[in-house]
Amino acid sequence: MKTALVGPNKNPLPAIVVGTMHYDELNTKEVCERINYAMELGTNYVDTANCYGKPEGLVESILGKTFEENPGLRDQIVLQSKGGITFYPDGRPYHNYSKEHLMKTLDASLSRLKTDHLDYFLLHRADALWEPEEVADAFDTMKKQGKVLHFGVSNEVPYGIELLKKYCTVPIELTQMQFSIAHADMCVQPIATNNHDFYAVDRDGGIMNYCRLNDVTIQAWSPFQYGFIEGCFMDHPDYKEVNDAMQAVADIYGVSKTTIAVAWILRHPAVPQVVIGTTKMKRFAECCAACDIKLTYEDWYNIYLAAGYPIM
Ligand SMILES: NC(=O)c1ccc[n+]([C@@H]2O[C@H](COP(=O)([O-])OP(=O)(O)OC[C@H]3O[C@@H](n4cnc5c(N)ncnc54)[C@H](OP(=O)(O)O)[C@@H]3O)[C@@H](O)[C@H]2O)c1
Fold first, then answer.
1. Phi, psi at residue 177, to the nearest 5°?
2. Which CATH number goes with the domain that contains 284?
3. What is the DSSP code string of 256-281?
4. How far apart are CA 24 and CA 201, in angstroms?
5. CA of 190 to the centre of ligand 1 (A)
6. Domain-located, residue 99
7. What's 238's DSSP letter?
8. Residue 239 counted as domain residue
9. Residue 138 structural domain
10. What distance in angstroms lies between residue 231's CA and the mean position of ligand 1's atoms?
11. Rounded distance, CA 172 to CA 183, Å?
């Protein structure tokens, strides 16, 4: 398993992260099986969030029950959760980064997860009304209370991270961004700048170069989705050309297209970790196999071009 060196101490963490957004479909025995299998494959990093599953907290509760039924399991994993998204009684989501809300969210997550601490806590999606001083204060308190060891953000622009860092005493070690072959604008924009109208538009403030410059690790989420988690592009008829290109590259390495989809992401030097959402163990293993492959420039750009991105 490849590792990513995360945070100021360059903590070596697995490149493949177990994503649990769809774990509401599983029972605790199945969850335990998947976590143990992931560890056999070399990754013990599990990502979740307060908002995964309905009602709020369902996936965290399933994970917590899994830990309760399997003593010692929690301590073997790097546990990451996210907060800041909350819900009206009718189910509509909104964001709240107030200190009071973040502390309450964290305590609820810890209680559901049946653990006294998270290894990583991330702010899930930017809150328009946030006061960065308050978030920094919340992080400080979480750290002092021993409830969170490390911190990060998600779907945040560089100036948002800078604003937070202005007040934070703890380092902002990582961010999660949506990134896949079919959703690659953040790496296309620097190539298209000054030339191609659509792709030249900077929609994320140059997050990839920012993160490399500031040692913020990017975790790619939804590595198999197009649009905003609209569907999987693997074998999708609208993505035939890129599927054919992936298959051609897969044939060169003697692996599956699933492996190549993850290898394509990990080949980008700004994205050392991928959060995998499949509930299928075979697919998860194919994703881990991406760590053994380094695509050549020719392979990487072949897939890039087949996905319809501009080059010159
Ligand atoms: N920070 C954020 O804002 C954010 C947002 C969304 C997600 N996330 C995190 O990222 C993780 C991954 O996101 P995701 O679940 O949307 O991503 P994904 O890994 O791109 O998609 C997984 C989904 O695609 C399906 N799928 C179909 N064919 C597949 C194939 N050949 N290979 C792999 N998957 C295939 C899977 O079904 P099967 O289960 O049947 O394989 C599963 O439903 C989440 O679990 C969550 O932890 C973070």
1. -135, 145
2. 3.20.20.100
3. -HHHHHHHHHHTSTT--EEEE----H
4. 37
5. 26
6. yes
7. G
8. yes
9. 3-306
10. 9
11. 25
Number of domains in the chain: 1
224 CA distance to ligand 1 centroid (A)? 6
Which residue shows structure tokens 């039924």? 69
CB 116 within 8 A of CB 110: yes
What pLDDT score does 195 carry?
85
Index of the ligand 1 atom closest to the CA of residue 224: 20
Q: How confident is the chain (312 residues) per 10-residue block, as mean pLDDT?
A: 96 98 98 98 98 97 98 98 96 97 98 98 97 98 98 98 98 98 96 88 95 98 95 97 98 98 98 98 98 98 97 86
Ligand 1 centroid–CA 70 distance in Å is 25
pLDDT for position 194: 86
Provide the angle, in degrees to the nearest 10, between the axes of the packed helices 99-113 and 132-144. Answer: 40
In a domain, 146, yes or no: yes
Helix (H) or strand (E) holding 59: helix 58-69
- Report residues whose beta carbon is within 6 angstroms of any ligand 1 atom: 19-22, 47, 124, 154-155, 176, 221-225, 229, 232, 234, 258, 275-280, 283
Asked, for residue 311, whether it belongs to a domain, the answer is no
* pLDDT at 299 (0 to 100): 98
Nearest CA to ligand 1 atom 42: 278
* ∠ Cα 54 57 58 (to 5°): 55
Contact of 217 with 174, CB cutoff 8 Å:
yes
* Minimum CA distance residue for ligand 1 atom 38: 278
Which pLDDT belongs to residue 196? 80
How far away, in angstroms, is 160 Cα from ligand 1 center?
26
Atom of ligand 1 nearest to the CA of 154: 1
Answer for the pair 136, 151: CB distance below 8 angstroms, yes or no.
no
